[in-house]
């Protein structure tokens, strides 16, 4: 019997196997990190494996995550392979502790908590990877934000290490973002306000990465001290960086109405949303995730917001 030898480029720099103790759903676990089906930083192959790129303290990495018979097989390539590969269980929610969550008496929350057994809040430990797309999503439609995200990755993203699917990229470094010219930003369709915010966070990016003593409130304070970064952007970041179970995205165009309609059968504002979520303080983001998975949405009456083409302005 002859054993096939893989080309050197395909041999992972890191490999491991991990078995979660809950019914993990890989696509749902990674969904908060994917910006559209064409996201150059997260793809799925025909075998059901997820390919994800990331920055790390050691450099860029590509990670392949393959579910096989209840196990998760991890392979990683690149300078940051060991750091990224070791972090995969945390990405998927291994550190989340839902045991202290009390769904209370609301019938929808009780039902969703009982049936959504796959839900765990993952944490990546990387601010920059979550912050760049969050800035691009400020005050624009999802379609527009995802288009700019793809254009930015094509323009300035690093090629994914290892045998990643074609077209995959790593989030550009803060230095590379600062080097992007105004004309290149204009071609990507990025307006001046988001451009200035992105340059501001790129200038202090190293100080925004979480360390052992940096909890979610601390990181939010650091983020909101940067010009152009408000409470919504900070919340979107810590939900992914820390897997924060309580921080809610105040200022989101749709979220308040999803929460209001699901819990009270009516639309509401941000203050009303927080009032409805108050019984679950400490786990308000967990309840939001439950409602996003199985709650209801108000009926649509009217045209959708059209994306603004900043490349023509």
TrEMBL record:
GO cellular component annotations of the record: cytoplasm; protein-DNA complex
SUPFAM superfamilies (UniProt xref): DNA-glycosylase
Keyword check for Methyltransferase: no
Biological process terms in GO annotation: base-excision repair, AP site formation; DNA alkylation repair
Keyword DNA damage on entry: yes
InterPro entries the record matches: Alkylbase_DNA_Glycosylase/TA, DNA_glycosylase
Gene Ontology MF terms in the entry: alkylated DNA binding; DNA-3-methyladenine glycosylase activity; DNA-7-methylguanine glycosylase activity
Spans annotated as Disordered: 294-313
Gene3D superfamilies: Hypothetical protein, domain 2
Protein origin, superkingdom: Bacteria
Keywords associated with the record: DNA damage, DNA repair
Protein name: DNA-3-methyladenine glycosylase 2 family protein
């Amino acid at each position: 019997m002859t054993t096939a030898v893989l080309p050197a480029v395909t041999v992972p720099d890191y490999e491991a196997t991990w078995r979660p103790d809950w019914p993990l759903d890989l696509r749902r676990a990674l969904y908060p990190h994917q910006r559209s089906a064409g996201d150059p930083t997260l793809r799925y192959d025909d075998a059901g494996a997820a390919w994800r790129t990331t920055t790390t303290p050691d450099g860029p990495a590509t990670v392949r995550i393959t579910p096989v018979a209840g196990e998760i097989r991890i392979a990683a390539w690149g300078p940051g392979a060991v750091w990224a590969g070791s972090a995969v269980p945390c990405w998927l929610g291994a550190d989340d502790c839902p045991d202290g969550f009390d769904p209370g008496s609301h019938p929808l929350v009780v039902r969703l908590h009982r049936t959504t057994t796959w839900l765990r809040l993952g944490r990546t430990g990387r601010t920059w990877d979550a912050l760049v797309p969050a800035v691009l999503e400020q005050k624009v439609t999802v379609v527009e934000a995802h288009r700019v995200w793809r254009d930015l990755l094509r323009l300035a993203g690093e090629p994914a290490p290892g045998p990643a699917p074609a077209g995959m990229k790593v989030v550009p470094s803060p230095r590379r973002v600062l080097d992007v010219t105004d004309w290149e930003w204009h071609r990507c369709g990025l307006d001046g306000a988001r451009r200035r915010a992105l340059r501001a966070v790129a200038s202090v990016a190293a100080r925004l990465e979480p360390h052992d003593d940096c909890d979610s409130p601390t990181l939010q304070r650091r983020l909101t001290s940067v010009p152009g970064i408000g409470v919504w952007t900070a919340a979107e970041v810590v939900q992914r960086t820390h897997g924060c179970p309580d921080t809610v995205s105040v200022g989101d165009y749709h979220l308040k109405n999803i929460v209001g309609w699901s819990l009270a059968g009516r639309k509401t504002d941000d203050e009303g949303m927080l009032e409805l979520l108050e019984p679950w303080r400490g786990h308000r983001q967990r309840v939001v995730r439950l409602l996003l998975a199985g709650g209801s949405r108000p009926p649509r009456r009217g045209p959708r917001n059209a994306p603004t083409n900043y490349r023509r302005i």
